[in-house]
Amino acid sequence: MDLNTTIWLNIVTVILLADAMIAAAMIINKVYKKGRMQTFGKNREYILRAVSENHAEGSRKIPFSFYAEMRQSLRLDAESCEKMKGLFDIKKAERKALRRAESVFRTTRIRGVAELGMLGTEKARHALELGLLREKDSSVKLYMANSLSEIGDSNSISVMVASLFNANRFYREKVNMLIAGFGSEFNDYLPTIMTVDRVEIVELIVDFASGHFSALVKDYLIQLIDTRQEKLDWYSRMYGSDVDCCGNCIHRSLMVGSSSTIKCRYKGIRPGNYVCRRHTLLPVSINSGENYRQVVYKACRILAEYYPAFLDDEKYLKSADQTIKNIAVGALANYRSEDRIVRLIGLLTEEETSRSASKAISAIIEKNPGYINAVADALAETENIVARRELARILAGKIEYFIMKLTKGNKEKAEKIIFEVLKLGRSSEIIDFLNKNKNLDIEAELIRIVRKASEDLPELEHTLSIYLNRVLLEKCGIIPYMVETEKKEEKKDRNLTTYLVELLVVMTAGPFLIYAVRHMDTLRTLPLDDQIRHFVRDFNYGFVFYSAAINIAYLMLLLFSYINVVKQKRLQAVKDVSMLFKKKMLPSVSIIAPAYNEEKTIIESSNSLLNLKYPDYELIIVNDGSKDDTLQTLIRYFNLIRVDYMFESSLKTKPVRGIYRNPARPGFTVVDKENGGKADTLNAGINISSKEYFCGIDADSLIEEEALLRLAAMTLDENQETPALGGNIFPINGCQVEKGKINKTGIPRNCLARVQMMEYIRSFMGGRLGWAYLNSLLIISGAFGLFRKDRVVGVGGYLTSSERYEKDTVGEDMELVVRIVRSIRELGGSYRICYAYNANCWTEVPEEIGVLRKQRYRWHKGLIDILYFHKEMLFNPDYGRAGIMAMPYFFIFEMAGPLIEMGGYFMAIAAFFLGMMNYEIALLLFVTTILMGTLVSMSSLMISEKGAAYFTVKEVLVLAGYAIAENFGIRQILSVWRVGAFFEMFRSTGGWNKAERKGFSSAQTADR
Questions:
Q1: SUPFAM superfamilies, per this entry (predicted)?
Q2: β-bridge pairing 784-788 and 693-697
Q3: What is the three-state SS of 108-170?
Q4: Which DSSP symbol is given to 486?
Q5: Cα 794 vs. chain centroid, distance in angstroms?
Q6: Which of 232, 366, 876, 939 lies 20 to 30 Å from 709 when distance is taken between CA atoms?
Q7: Residues near 94 by Cβ (< 8 Å), separated by ≥ 6?
Q8: Contact 261/277 with Cβ under 8 angstroms?
Q9: Do residues 65 and 93 lie in contact, with contact meaning Cβ atoms separated by under 8 Å?
Q10: How far apart are CA 333 and CA 342, in angstroms?
Q11: Beta-ladder partners of 724
Q12: Peptide bond preceding 271 in cis form (omega within 30 of 0)
């Protein structure tokens, strides 16, 4: 045995020992976690008993970490928290927290700041105030401001106000609400800053007014609105000037504008120990003028809510500023006035105010139904088409009132109103009433009116043919609409085909050219059989090098994943629920769930999404022309009705056929549209969404109750824009599910699903967490991702043939992220794509090999399509790490990798049968392809278990077995499929190809 063989045998031994040690470490970790949970449980019982019996002082001491965990897990009142402080050494905890708050490491600093807030001592408060004015990192400053708000000392108000100057918008909008949380104490402080003419102060006072209205605030808002144009002109003149001020001139005891030198009560603040003499107050951002304008509009809306009579003035109702004009019109609905309904009806005739007036009239009718007859009379009398359209929309919402009059004596007026509403295109409510009605007399009268209206309106007849039930259609003499399945003729991209052919030629000829260059001296002299032997040997050594390179890359990513998990765990530990649920702390979210043939799982999934723990979100389910009973299942279960819902089509999509809502569930909307694929469906949901971010999730998936909270909370930890965030995906096969909630997690029973469980763990825990740490993440799974709506709309939404690029893709999840990254880099901006280790989404995975094969074909074809579409980014330093690291990785290892891998296996088999396989090559191939692959999978499993305990010891051992077994045939089959997908790209790019689902229910349980 030669020296090289001995070395490689030692490497084999080391890898096997590493696998064994990882398995042992996972078991030990589980035992430790179980013991720690028991200890925590005992300490919690002891703490609660000590607090309830009022003998916290003098009791046995506990570590401060248990107090911190108690604060996180239980909602305790201030009195209980004070009693608990007697159970640990507060001075010792204070010293440690102060040291951490001064750390050079950002995560440690945040932890120290949070602990100081929990302690709430005078020394802790003073340290936080001083740190808030010195700190440059806006994310750390936010935690400091939150800790000061938790302590709740009014002396901190001035420091928190000072921290707003020259801060970014992200920090200001959150800290404004923290300051507003001081309530009456901040109201008393207001006179100190009301003369300050800076956007930050104006924003602060207006945000305060949105939740705390007083006479002082009212006068300020009125003055702000009346002097708006003067201020906007001033901002325009001052745009681009330099700030000649230390930015820390405003404290509780100081008045801005003083010309004398006033000693600052904080040391070390620029410029020295004194507040600067000059107080030039200038814009704080490029768009200060626009910021000011938006603040003025917000002030108008607040006045419209709290003091609407102020806006009942011609200078506002006839304002040249269209937004102020519409707000003033809407304010008429908020106070009692004899002629307000008449005035609002008159305002319906103006195109620019018709919608605001319509909303105001609807609000008045809701409070005073008696006004409905005045609206009906106005519809009969007016000839203005804009007013008629809006009046019809108003009356459509109350159409049942007129329908019920059809069987009474004086029915002519009701009949005329119904006819006019139908003629003006408001049919949804009438159709819904007919479908649910059981009164035959009313049905006969209503059908007569509908038939009469449909004779003159072909579009009404078409609408009725789609949405009216078949029995009623027969009575109306209308033929039911037959949905024609549109067969998409895929356009073959000749450029893509040429690109793939060129790539294939290069990859095929490459090894031969390399061999020819290396053996140029002997190329003509050696016999052919020797040439073949040398070529096969060189190819196998090259394949060994490639396998080693890809697995080393995986192991490096695993290292970064581990660091990322540790970092996220520490940051999560300092985010308590009270912080996350404070107003505006987290962004508002629209959850968009595309549904195509999801009849079996749609109710469980909907219930899951409706029961998330999150402060501000809405759910939009988009039915993409399902062929099964998906839509009707939703309508029946949630008692939905079809409504005429107005929305802005920012993105072009296939036609929307109907929108369904239930007034009792204002945050839930179901959209029915023509089939256009998943990307088109998501774009339709984006159009209808109304929140700051949207969360794309598959309708056949369930997300954990706190998953969205954990994912969105990552936005608090970044100083850069976070345009996209992603979470984990795990197979739900084998979990106990009841009423949309996972009661018990477990590994699947099916062997194929278990293989995918291991594969998902390796991909998400070992790959995406590592890429996120390097800020090079380019994939957010379509099953669970969070995106900034304005950023997505700005780049054209998901890639579809309906939108600006006129192109479809089957890899919509990765493509959108790549396009966002590309757009930001081209505009010179900075960003961070985040990934949460413990925000989990559970989805059903295929349990049949044919279905799995189709899925993997689709995935790989999507990857190829994306890499070709964005080929300009490959190896391009202009796109930062995405261009020089992430894109090349996907090109070399993910797209071309399967071709190289299959070539390597073919050569290895050829060498074996030709008798060319020597002991050393066989050993090298075994180490680099099998053993290193096993090490990667085992390490990924260990990282997943470090983040959270998902599985029992038995299940961990089973998964460890699959981590080893998948390298012997399973991984090779997946590579063969990916090669097949590569060659299938010459024929077509494919479509959604939604897999058939078995559905999940409470019967699904894991093996125990």
A1: Nucleotide-diphospho-sugar transferases
A2: antiparallel
A3: HHHHHHHHHHHHCCHHHHHHHHHHHHHCCCHHHHHHHHHHHHHHCCHHHHHHHHHCCCCCCHH
A4: P
A5: 16
A6: 939
A7: 116, 119, 121, 123, 124
A8: yes
A9: no
A10: 12
A11: 787
A12: yes
User: Is residue 490 over pLDDT 70?
Assistant: no
Sequence-ordered list of residues with C-beta below 8 angstroms from that of 830, at least 6 positions apart, any chain = 720, 721, 824
Q: Is residue 253 over pLDDT 50?
A: no
C-beta of residue 810 within 8 angstroms of C-beta of residue 858: yes
For 594, the token pair is 């595309």
Mean pLDDT value of segment 889-916: 86
Q: Which residue has the tokens 């300092």?
A: 574
Contact 903, 539 (CB under 8 A): yes
3-state secondary structure 802-823: CCCCCCCCCCHHHHHHHHHHHH
- Tokens at 204, concatenated: 């602060």
Residue 827, CB half-sphere, CA atoms under 13 Å: how many? 12
Q: Has residue 239 got a pLDDT over 50?
A: no
Please state the three-class secondary structure of 909-978 as a single string. Answer: HHHHHCCCCCHHHHHHHHHHHHHHHHHHHHHHHHHHHHHCCCCCHHHHHHHHHHHHHHHHHHHHHHHHHH
**526 contacts: CB under 8 Å, gap ≥ 6:** 519, 534
Q: Give the pLDDT confidence score for residue 234 in this predicted structure.
A: 56
Query: Is 760:940 a contact under the CB 8 Å cutoff?
Result: no
Residue 772 and residue 751: Cα distance in Å, rounded?
Answer: 31
User: Nearest-CA neighbor of 979 among 860, 815, 865, 889?
Assistant: 860
pLDDT of residue 1003: 42
What is the reported pLDDT for 251? 33
SS3 category, 743: strand
> Quick one: which H or E segment has residue 669?
strand 665-673
Expressed in angstroms, the distance from the first to the final Cα of the chain is 46
Return all residues near 434 (Cβ < 8 A) that are at least 6 apart: 443, 446, 447, 450, 468, 472
Nearest by Cα to 708 from 841, 565, 571, 573: 841
29, 632, 751 from 636: Cα distances, Å: 47, 6, 37
Closest CA to 173 of 580, 584, 581: 584
- The tokens of 105 are what? 């490491």
Distance of CA 665 to the CA centre of its chain: 22
Q: Which of 134-143, 258-267, 623-632 has the least mean pLDDT?
A: 258-267
At 315, list the tokens. Answer: 């200078």
> What pairing do the DSSP bridges indicate for beta strands 589-595 and 701-703?
unpaired
Q: How far is CA 815 from CA 537, 687, 694, 755, in A?
A: 39, 19, 17, 26
What single DSSP character describes residue 263?
A: B
Single-letter amino acid code for the residue at 406? L
Determine the Cα–Cα distance for residues 857 and 974; give it in Å rounded to an integer.
9
Domains and their CATH numbers in the chain = 553-984 (3.90.550.10)
4 in Cβ contact with 924 (< 8 Å) = no
Please say if the pLDDT value at position 593 is more than 60: yes
Q: How many Å apart are CA 151 and CA 120, to the nearest integer? A: 5
Instruction: Report the SS3 class of residue 532.
Output: helix
* Per-residue pLDDT, 778: 93
Q: Label residues 412-427 b or e (16+ Cβ within 10 Å = b).
A: eebbebbebbbbbbbb
Contacts of 953 (CB under 8 A, 6+ apart): 27, 30
- What are the percentages of helix, strand and coil residues in the chain, rounded to 5? 60, 10, 30
Q: Quick one: which of 232, 127, 132, 124 has its CA closest to 175?
A: 132
Would you state the structure tokens that stand for residue 619, as one six-digit string?
Answer: 């759910």
Cα separation, 336 vs 678, in Å, equals 49
* Predicted confidence (pLDDT) per residue in 80-138, tens digit: 666 666 666 788 888 999 999 999 999 999 999 999 998 888 999 999 999 999 999 99
Strands 665-673 vs 617-624: parallel, antiparallel or unpaired: parallel
d(CA 30, CA 460): 64
Whole-model pTM?
0.83
Mean pLDDT, range 399-422, rounded to an integer: 83
pLDDT for 208? 94
Residue that is written with structure tokens 């460890």 in the block: 960
